[in-house]
Amino acid sequence: MMKIDKYDRMILEIIQKQGKISNQQLAEAINLSPSPCLRRVKHLEESGIIAGYVALLDAKKLGLSLICFMQISMDKHTPERFKSFENKIAEFSEVLECHLVTGQSADYLLKIIVKDMDDFQQFLLNKLTPIEGVSGVHSSFVLKSPVNTTALTIT
């Protein structure tokens, strides 16, 4: 784990919320001159702490309004079965997240987004359930998202 100081923390906090901020603006915000600020950002990128940059899109404005969390149970608990499922599920653009979990009756927790219930049905019946080893599916639909962030707490 790389040691980060207060300037690194400030940089990380700001760019998580303002990914398009210029180096000049970032340097001013943390009271550092532009050259050392840029060196710090480059170092954070090269170390892998900054893994990349993305644009956050408004799903509803793109017609994607149905978010679902799905618990998936597998018939066999073997590395091969899990790897096969993970490889297949990674092919589906509807899947935003896939987590192997413990403490549940399910093996995986998926977060998916689709246009509507018809699209959900197509995803479920034509993509998810045909995957070899899927033995159970439990779906929970999102009604509201009062907290929805990508920003990590920097300590």
Automatic annotation (TrEMBL):
Q: Which PANTHER family match?
A: LEUCINE-RESPONSIVE REGULATORY PROTEIN (PTHR30154), TRANSCRIPTIONAL REGULATOR AZLB (PTHR30154:SF34)
Q: What are the residue boundaries of the HTH asnC-type domain, all occurrences included?
A: 4-65
* Name of protein: Lrp/AsnC family transcriptional regulator
Entry-linked Pfam families? AsnC_trans_reg, HTH_24
Instruction: Give the matching InterPro entries.
Output: ArsR-like_HTH, AsnC-type_HTH_dom, Dimeric_a/b-barrel, Tscrpt_reg_AsnC-like, Tscrpt_reg_AsnC/Lrp_C, Tscrpt_reg_HTH_AsnC-type_CS, WH-like_DNA-bd_sf, WH_DNA-bd_sf
Which superkingdom is the protein from? Bacteria
Keyword list (alphabetical) reads:
DNA-binding, Transcription, Transcription regulation
| SUPFAM superfamilies linked to this entry | Dimeric alpha+beta barrel, Winged helix' DNA-binding domain
Q: Does the keyword S-adenosyl-L-methionine apply?
A: no
Does Transcription regulation show up as a keyword for this record? Answer: yes
